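Reopening this ticket.

The earlier resolution said the output was attached, but the attachment link was broken on my side. Pasting everything inline this time so it's all in one place.
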Amino acid sequence: MPRPRQKILDNLESIYREAYDRARAAGDQVRMADLDAAYQREQLLLEVLLDVRDALATPPATSSQGAADPMSALETIHRIAKLR
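Inline output:
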């Protein structure tokens, strides 16, 4: 079972928060700004990946042999891409 979305996002925030706090303690304003921008970028990318994971986690259609239908997977990816 995949980890819950919020736990993953909380872990990301925790990692960046620790680095940000160290930069603040050192008075490194440039590093703080870099970390802030990196966090926002990483969070956005992670949310997109989680959306893809959630979309693909729906039970796949099966063929007569019991294997996942590749066309259904491609249709799901196409639908996600169109959301952009």
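Reporter confirms the inline version is readable. The chain has three helices and no strands. Residues 5-82 form one domain.
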